[in-house]
Amino acid sequence: MKYQAAVLSLVVAIYTSAVVGDDNLIPPRREVYNNGKIFDITHRYQPDMPAFESSDGIGQFLWLPKSMKNGSIANNSEMKLPTHTGTHVDAPGHVFDHYFDAGFDVDSLDLHILNGPALLVDVPRDSNITAEVMKTLSIPRGVTRVLFRTLNTDRRLMFQKEFDSSYVGFTVDGAKWLVENTDIKLVGVDYLSVASYDYLIPSHLVFLKDREIILVESLKLDDVPAGLHSVHCLPLRLAGAEGSPIRCILIKY
Ligand SMILES: *[C@@H]1O[C@H](CO)[C@@H](O)[C@H](O)[C@H]1NC(C)=O
Ligand SMILES: *[C@@H]1O[C@H](CO)[C@@H](O)[C@H](O)[C@H]1NC(C)=O
Ligand SMILES: *[C@@H]1O[C@H](CO)[C@@H](O)[C@H](O)[C@H]1NC(C)=O
Fold first, then answer.
1. Tell me: the pLDDT tens digits for 23-50?
2. Cα–ligand 3 centroid distance for 128 (angstroms)
3. How does pLDDT run across 107-159, given as a tens digit for each residue?
């Protein structure tokens, strides 16, 4: 029967590639899925991805203490990674000690804010995200999730091992303007920090003070059309951690 033959050849194919080996095995690595309907906006974790204030990238973070090559029944790797590495989320405990002590970790973040309709906007390339810039973006009330694409994307900063402090981010007045004049609860940016280097901590404080806004940093926004999408971001459920790597995708409406 046709069906049985198909199943048999599938089993043979799996057996052949698993046991006999196949030199032509090429794993798919995609940025876009389902004919352009799903965009992966997460950066790939690899040793030469940039780390804050480091010129050497994140370095080795994966080891293989148990491997089939040296007799284990399976390959089992281990990783060690700062929680604010690559595409990641900040919880309120990141910059507020009393929130940290009270347990406002990544496990306490609202998944509803991290998942839903989101606007991808282009920030004028000649400026940091100031109050003036926020005004000109005229993001309508009712928009709760915004991903800000900036000069960082054009400069491909996340693809450069060396940290660059001249990245674009929010100034304090820009952060304040967003908090006071919009309904935005999810702020996504395209480099390691939502705050520009000169306002590193003050801008974070403005955003995280009320514990209503979630910050997602180092998003990969290349080649994604501006406009409305559905965003889906899921942090690891790390109890006690004020940050976590996060997988984010955009789905076209
Ligand atoms: C097994 O091999 C890996 C590298 O493939 C090495 O890191 C690890 O230490 C080895 N473990 C033992 C028990 O030899
Ligand atoms: C891990 O397992 C595969 C077989 O599934 C084997 O080909 C490979 O060599 C192993 N890796 C290491 C580092 O031992
Ligand atoms: C943004 O601010 C940083 C310092 O925080 C500065 O180095 C950079 O030149 C500014 N970028 C733009 C486009 O104004």
1. 689 999 999 999 999 999 999 999 999 9
2. 6
3. 999 999 999 999 999 999 999 999 999 999 999 999 999 999 999 999 999 99
Domain architecture of the chain: domains with CATH: 88-252 (3.50.30.50)
Nearest CA owner, ligand 1 atom 7: 65
Instruction: For the chain, give the secondary structure using H, E and C.
Output: CHHHHHHHHHHHHHHHHHHHCCCCCCCCCCCEECCCCEEECCCCCCCCCCCCCCCCCCCCCEEEEECHHHCCCCCEEEECCCCCCCCEEECHHHCCHHHHHHCCCHHHCCCCCCEEEEEEEECCCCCCECHHHHHHHCCCCCCCEEEEECHHHHCCHHHCCCCCCCCCCECHHHHHHHHHHCCCCEEECCCCCCECHHHHHHHHHHHHCCCCCEEEECCCCCCCCCEEEEEEEEECCCCCCCEEEEEEEEEEC
pLDDT attached to residue 1: 44
68 CA closest ligand 2 atom index? 14
Is this structure's pTM higher than 0.85? Answer: yes
> Residue 68's pLDDT is what?
93
Whole-number Å distance, alpha carbon 64 to ligand 1 midpoint, is: 6
106 pLDDT more than 80: yes
